[in-house]
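Input sequence (667 aa), recorded before submission:
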Amino acid sequence: MNEATWKRLEYDKIKEKLIGYTVSPGGKMLAEKLEPSNQRNRVMAWLTETQEAADLLATGASVPLSSMEGIDPFLALLGKGRVYNETELEQLLIWLVSIAQMKRYMDSKRQTAPTIASYADSMRDCPELRSELERCIRFGRLTDQASPGLASVRRQIIVVEDKIERKLQGALSKYKSALQESFISKRSGRSVIAIKRELRKQVPGTVWDESASGQTLYVEPIDVADLQSELQSWAAEEERERTVILSGLSDLADAHVQQLKGNREAMATFDFIMARGKLSRSYDGRKTTLSDHPVIRLVEARHPLLGSNVEPLTVELGLRWKQLIITGPNTGGKTVALKTIGLLAAMVQSGLLAPAGEDSRFGLFKGIIADVGDGQSVEQSLSTFSSHLAVLKQMLDSAGERSLLLLDEMAAGTDPSEGIALSIAVLEELLQRKSLVAATTHFNEIKTFASRTAGCMNAKMAFDAETLRPLYRLELGEAGDSHAFAIARRCGLPEHVLQRAEQLTVSRPSAVGILAGNSTDEILSSPKQMQEQELKPYFSLEEVAAESSIGAAETKAEAEATEEAVALKKKELEVGDAVWIYPLKRIGIVYRAADARGEVIVQVQGEKMKFNRKRLKLSISKEKLYPGEDYDMDIVFETKENRKIRKQLRRKHVEGLKIETKGEDLV
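Predicted structure, token format:
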């Protein structure tokens, strides 16, 4: 899978939230390693686990997960002959207690969560080890019950300490006049009293320390020296006994190394599963259907990072069409729709529940690639268009039947005519490979392609034309408008600027419509409208791509023409042929074939122009442009009003009704 795609789809943010729900280092590590899988059995198992975890959490029960504090370093040294201290062994005891609690808890939840409850059967609470630890350690210290020898030594220590205490209390009274302070303290492990330096000779004994000023000496009176030596002897005996006990407990722990490591894996797995359940519940995720086929059907789906206030998305891919072209205004939710489709697919393949209706369905994809965002990179010196091309190359290198490809703002970042041609060529290739594609665009030519191509479907993000506000609702079957001018008016742009822009839009031919001199509205007529009205010219994907790219090739030099282009030049031009006009660097339609001098009359945007045959190149023959040999060329060369009048005159004479033409006036 593609790391860059996960970032574009914000899958990394979903993983961050998942990691945040773990409570142990082992669970965190599993969450960090999570990636979408295309293995059906694995994904099914993951989804079952996550659903059962969510069901357990829904009951309000508190799952006794262990944070496993200190367990990983402990287990890393286990079996290597190390003697563990009381703190480490007590952490082991606490963990074993939590293992026992988890086993009891899961055993009681077999009806609610049969699959994950069975995982607890593999856990071992090691009763012998746990019993020994409970007997020997409490509050981070060995208990007197740890061994008879330890208990005996500690009793002797208490007796000697009591004798020393009584002796020192007597010394405080005996040497009261020489005292700097009237209490007993410890220095170098010995019990001492504070004596004034100048009165040191009044107190026989050993000086073990002095104050920072040097005015106070800490003296062990001579009459307690023997008792303190005896105490140190018993303390050394206690340490020896402690070492024996800790060694025995450590050996016992070593004997359970396999069970303990298995427990760690099981507890980490439980932590990871419960984290998936917590995350799924945070956005109201549900278990959806896994399909054997590469399809996506989202019903009332929401983006998991946007909360419940977003408009739900209902959309499908792979069932009735392979490609979905989404249009509509900026900020209307097109990009969010793409991200939702891709992110939910990745989440399901990661074993996470999707925030979508239970009727939703997901196939498994070997590759999910998203081109969302402009992708500009100062470090890599990539322009927006170069970034798009890099992602397109990835798609074309790997696209297949089980590929989900998401393209945001097709044809953006470069010359529109070339970008449109490239986009349509890419869509055609991906359609041939049966890849699932969801794309957004503002270009009418791409909308037209979707409306006329089997396996493709237009969709639009709903927009309230009165309030000029996006509704964030996806509507299938229709292409949407960008509403740029309406939104610009709402933002306060000068009216005269907007009126001029609208005039330019009306006069600007579309990249496809220019071939026949038709308006943008005519070219974008739906198939149903084409049946009800007069049949318009049609164009294949190859022809649209060729029309958009041929001009760029010819501007380099006529000498660089391909063999096919040379052959086309030799063909006699016929009325209706689309030709490339070298002087104008644009497409026109042959209105009258070449005369004896080789002069050809060409219609360009409704105007007739004369060019020598040598200045023209056949681009698309009329057989490919028009449906049927008896196609009425008046549709191309005459206005709609004149065609209507001609039809009336064919039926009957109408007084005063006449057809106005400009004859062969040439520009």
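Checked by second reader. Residues 323 and 427 are 8 Å apart (CA to CA).
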